[in-house]
Amino acid sequence: MDYDTIKAKYENEYSWLYDRGKDKIRNYKFDYIKNYLLNYIDKEADIDILDYWAWDGVFSLFLPVNYRYHYLDIATSQYKNIRKENSTLHIFKDNYTLPDFGKKFDVIVMSEIIEHLPDVYSVISTLKQQLKPGWRIVVTTPNAFYWMNVIKGFFWRYIDPSKQHVNLYDYSTLNNIFELAWYSLADKRFLIFSYLVFNKCKRIDSLLSRLFKYSNLNLFLVFENKI
User: Fold this and answer.
1) Of 1-5, 167-171, 218-222, where does the model show the most confidence?
2) In this structure, what CATH number is given to the domain that contains residue 155?
C-alpha cells in the first residue's frame, strides 16, 4: 500500500485501537518499559524520549511528567489518551522519512512496531543518528519461538493471519541486525507465557514465563548506541 492509503487506514483504526481499561497485556508491557527506564535513569532526570510510531500515544501516561515525551506517527487524529504535559507530536514525512526533530534523544522506544517494518536495518540505522551516543533503544516484539507459534508451525498453520506483521524475530536474529547497525546488546528478557493465562491469572503466567522463558510471547531487548 502507498503512504496515503496506509495513513488513511491507521487514522480509521486508531479511533478504536485502545481502551486502556481492557488491554491488560499492553498495559503490562508499557509498565514494564517504564520500570526498566526508572531503574536505568533517575526519575528526576532531564531527558527526551522518542516513541517511534506511537500509535495512540498512551505510553506517555506511564512516564514521569518531567521526561519529555516525543511521539512520532503517521497520523494526527488519534491521540485521545495522550498526556498534555511535556509532550510533542512529530509526523513522518512522505515515505516514512523522519522529520527534523531539532535534537537528539536519550531513549527511543519501539514497542510492538519492528515486526511491521519491511526494512528494519534501514530504520534503526537512521534512528541511530537521532540517538545520543551511549544511550539506548528499547524494543518489544513478538517472539518467533513463542510456544504457540512452534505448535502452529508443526501443523503447517499460519503463525500470523492478521496480514499486519511482515517479520517475526527470535532474540539472536534481531540482535544480529542491531549489531550490523553498530548497536550493542544491553539487556534481553522474555515476557508473558500466554494471552489466555495472563488474563486469567497473572501469577501463574509469571511462574510459567520463568520456567519456559525462551518460549514466551514477547521479546524485550535493549540496545546501546556504540558510536
Assistant:
1) 218-222
2) 3.40.50.150
User: Order of strands across the sheet with 87-91?
Assistant: 87-91, 68-73, 48-52, 105-111, 131-142, 218-225, 183-191
Residue 205 has which C-alpha cell?
503466567
The band of 1, judged by pLDDT with boundaries at 50, 70 and 90, is: low
Q: Which among 223, 9, 226, 227 has a CA at the least distance from the CA of 116?
A: 9
Contacts of 191 (CB under 8 A, 6+ apart): 28, 29, 32, 140, 209, 216, 217, 218, 219, 220
Average pLDDT, the chain: 87
Would the pLDDT of 28 be above 70?
A: yes
pLDDT digits (tens, 9 = 90+) for 141-153: 999 999 998 998 8
| Counted domains in the chain | 1
How high is the pLDDT of residue 43? 87
Closest CA to 41 of 109, 122, 142, 98: 109
112 with 164: CB under 8 angstroms?
Answer: no
Phi, psi of 173 (to 5 degrees): -65, -45
CA within 13 Å, CB half, 61: 13
Question: Residue 107 phi/psi, 5° resolution?
Answer: -140, 140
